[in-house]
Amino acid sequence: MLLAARSDWWNIARTCAGLALVPVAAGFLLVTMRQNQLPATSGAIAASVVFVFVVAVLSALRIPVSYTGFAWTFPVALIGMAYANLRLQRMKRGRVALLDHPGVGEARKVLGPAVPVITPDSPDAFDYDCVLIDPEAHHNPEWAQVMARFYMLGIEIAAWPKYAEGFLGRVAIEDFDLAHVAYTPTQIYYSKIKRAIDLAAVLVLAPVAVVVGALIWIYIRLIDGGPVFFVQLRRGYGGSVFRLYKFRTMRKGAGEAATQTDDARILPGCRILRQLRLDELPQLINIARGDMSWIGPRPVSVDIARKLERSVPQYINRQLVLPGLTGWAQVSHGYASNLDEERTKLEYDLYYVKNISFDLDLLILFKTVSTIMLRYKSK
């Protein structure tokens, strides 16, 4: 009995020692991939490695475990670590400075006071984690020695327009050029499988959506009668036109004017549907048909699209990707009530078009859920 007890304690000690290496291994993986442009993907990979490691250790030591429990907790850990690493990567920017040059005023206006301006003679010029340069002003022999010193000290050198784009999550309309939209192999691969992900998500959520949708259908019929669905022509991929479906949450004959705060046209009890975005459930049909994706620039009506395309010619570039149920502009800016705000939203949409990726879609998904849960930016 004593030997058996000692053996059990020895197994427990070995297991604890093995599991103690899990955070070390995960941390090492994430640190080695810290410069990776896909933090959510790297976080998911780290989570997968951790789980495989844990299962392997427990199996090798023949310790009874619930593999069903592992199967249930694995997706949660996968999403949790992906989200955590995504947030950490966005929060951890280090010390950044802007290298002085003749046109520094424009850069300061965009970057704001959070990024100080330095010269090579500044006392702390070589104490920063990243130095922003001007692509034209600093690319000449005069600055070669300074750049070499930054490089040898391990200081990251980045063009300030590119940094500003990632920092703000926007692409200036006048700077957007299709010639600069060069997708990486990862982006090309993701664009090919995104449609499959859309369909898989529709299939998974369809049973719940049908039940909830049926209840909403009955409720709208009971309180107001008339048509349950609101159908409108929207601008889609490549300039195509499609019928977008929503549950009608306004009174009959309410028109198509923009919704206002505390709009009296909203049916009793339907404000909560709008806040939780449940009125968008019928758009699963649009996603299944290929009119839309889960993530992408929000489709606008054909009339509004025509007006904006006349006012802002670059607006047409939103059509380079499928419109979505939610998008980067929606979670970063919210609704637009005038042309200036529409231009700002377009800058967010152009950023998405240029930087489309699984990680960005995942971030949009997380921010959308957060927005819905907080009932924020809803009209």
TrEMBL record:
Sequence intervals crossing the membrane: 12-31, 43-63, 69-86, 199-220
Superkingdom of source: Bacteria
Database matches in InterPro entries: Bact_transf
Any Pfam family matching the protein: Bac_transf
GO BP of this protein: polysaccharide biosynthetic process
Protein keywords: Exopolysaccharide synthesis, Membrane, Transmembrane, Transmembrane helix
Gene Ontology molecular-function annotations: phosphotransferase activity, for other substituted phosphate groups
Residue ranges of every copy of the Bacterial sugar transferase domain listed in the record: 194-373
Family per record: Belongs to the bacterial sugar transferase family.
The protein's name: Bacterial sugar transferase domain-containing protein
Organism: Devosia geojensis
